[in-house]
Write a structure and sequence with these properties.
The chain is of the alpha/beta class. The chain folds into two domains: 2-124 and 253-339, FAD/NAD(P)-binding domain (3-Layer(bba) Sandwich); 127-249, FAD/NAD(P)-binding domain. The chain has eight helices and 19 strands. The strands form five sheets. Strands 1, 2, 5, 6, 7, 8 and 19 form a seven-stranded mixed β-sheet that branches. Helix 1 (15-26) links the parallel strand 1 (2-12) and strand 2. Helix 1 runs parallel beside helix 8 (303-322). The protein is elongated.
Length: 344
């Protein structure tokens, strides 16, 4: 199995990971990102209007620009695959990066060694956990409007959720040309959404191509697959059915914390990695975390906060490496610094 050593190994993708890599390379550290997929949630989030200095852009393009800066301009190495812990000894780490297929063979796995780790693995979508949900996934049940919404142009669709992501998704589907959009909200309001997105939603409601079902839950998927509709439950109105070619689930996310738990990193009750908000350090020496995975900014999880936390994590890792005087046998084969590009 191929083996390679780094100063900083960043696990994940998206704004936190790419910002961490940019700062790590500016400190002239041998840096690699292990990413399972490109760009995190931001890459599939549609139009972004609140990233400072970029008035309006597509999330995919924003992540492509960050990744290009980290990789093409500064020399970060990208390793595609899923990371799992092999060894944590004397402040040094061995991680195996296996192919996205998940097969652990010598042909699709690499053994990576690093003095520090930065975890930026983000979140994964919550599901409704209804019967046969896996059968309907990608056959009418979806989790990404940007990815799958255009397929349903001219068709009736539904969005489940009451937060900002759900409201934005409903607006986006209407803008994409869905014949009708139904937003299904468990609460009696959509107050958690940003005011500008609520206003856009209500404009579509006034136009007649969108409606909102409050205090309502989806209890069953109907048809095929593919999906033909859903069964709804409302405490006051009783059960009902809604014809829909697709349902987009936007009910929040849970942290991707498997590797953090392998390392013995402390997580809070919600599964978020607990970090020092000043340094992004975890309770495990040499392990830092940033972005949506962490509790660093509470419920306020934004691209700008993720990028800032990535920069802090890389800076803290750099300081940590500077103070890491004892050389371990693992890093006896470290990459000679003279082969790395000089960064000014």
């Amino acid at each position: 199995m191929e083996s390679k050593s780094f100063d900083i190994l960043i696990i994940g993708s998206g704004a936190a990971a790419y910002a961490a890599a940019i700062y790590a390379r500016r400190y002239n550290l041998a840096t690699a990102i292990v990413e399972k997929s490109f760009g995190g949630y931001t890459a599939v989030s549609g139009i972004i209007e609140n990233y400072p200095g970029v008035p309006r852009t597509d999330g995919y393009e924003l992540m492509r620009a960050m990744r290009k800066q980290a990789v093409d301009e500064l020399g970060t190495e990208i390793i595609e695959g899923e990371a799992s812990l092999v060894k944590n000894e004397y402040h040094c780490f061995q991680v195996q990066a296996s192919g996205v297929s998940g097969q652990q063979s010598d042909t699709d796995s690499r053994l990576l060694q690093s003095k520090t780790l930065i975890l930026a693995t983000g979140m994964k979508h919550r599901s409704l956990h209804l019967p046969r949900e896996s059968e309907y996934t990608a056959k009418g049940v979806h989790f990404c409007v940007t990815c799958d919404g255009p397929v349903y142009r001219g068709k009736s669709v539904a969005v489940v959720g009451g937060g900002d992501a759900a409201v934005k998704s409903a607006v986006q589907l209407a803008d994409m040309g869905a014949s009708h959009v139904t937003l299904i909200v468990r609460e009696d309001n959509v107050d958690r959404a940003e005011p500008i997105n609520r206003d856009r939603l209500m404009a579509h409601v006034a136009a007649g191509n969108t409606d909102v079902r409050y205090e309502t839950e989806v209890t069953e998927y109907l048809g095929g697959p593919p999906l033909t509709g859903v069964r709804l439950s409302n405490a006051r109105a009783g059960d009902d059915t809604l014809t829909a070619s697709a349902v987009f689930i936007e009910i929040g996310s849970v942290p991707r914390n498997a590797l953090a738990k392998e390392l013995g990193v402390t997580c809070n009750a919600r599964g978020e990695v607990h970090v020092d908000p000043v340094t992004m350090a975890t309770n495990v020496d040499g392990v830092f975390a940033c972005g949506d995975l962490t509790d660093a900014s509470g419920d306020f999880k934004q691209i700008v906060t993720s990028a800032a936390q990535g920069a802090i994590a890389a800076t803290s890792a750099y300081k940590d490496i500077s103070q890491h005087g004892r050389a371990c046998t693992m890093h006896a084969v470290a990459i000679p610094p003279n082969i790395l590009p000089t960064v000014t």
